[in-house]
Amino acid sequence: xxxxxxxxxxxxxxxxxxxxxxxxxxxxxxxxxxxxxxxxxxxxxxxxxxxxxxxxxxxxxxxxxxxxxxxxxxxxxxxxxxxxxxxxxxxxxxxxxxxxxxxxxxxxxxxxxxxxxxxxxxxxxxxxxxxxxxxxxxxxxxxxxxxxx
Length: 149
What we know:
The chain has helices spanning about 35-50, 60-70, 85-95, 125-135; strands at about 30, 50-55, 75-80, 105-110, 120. The chain is an alpha/beta fold.
């Protein structure tokens, strides 16, 4: 799967898990990063913490998903430096779109000058920092899921 540019939905429970009606739907996070390893590691960590995850290789792929989505993500986690439509352009497009502008954005980047008005975390981001950022914007994973680094 490395090197492929496809969205990776995982809104169904992981193997061996069963979602119960009392838990409702898992919050969806859209992770946008051109680095396959970073994207996959982040996705795995977030799935373990009780989130459903969608992946996009760049801003164009993320925007295509967002414009076609029946259920929008609870938050977007994006790198800034990507080929094609980069994180800066993705943020600009999301903030201009009346259907998307309310989606919180977390920038995860090594950029020294992150955009204003969004939560920013430096790369590499640890589990605790990412969980605090998500809780800080009001996006909690599945209750009762505890993930240790």
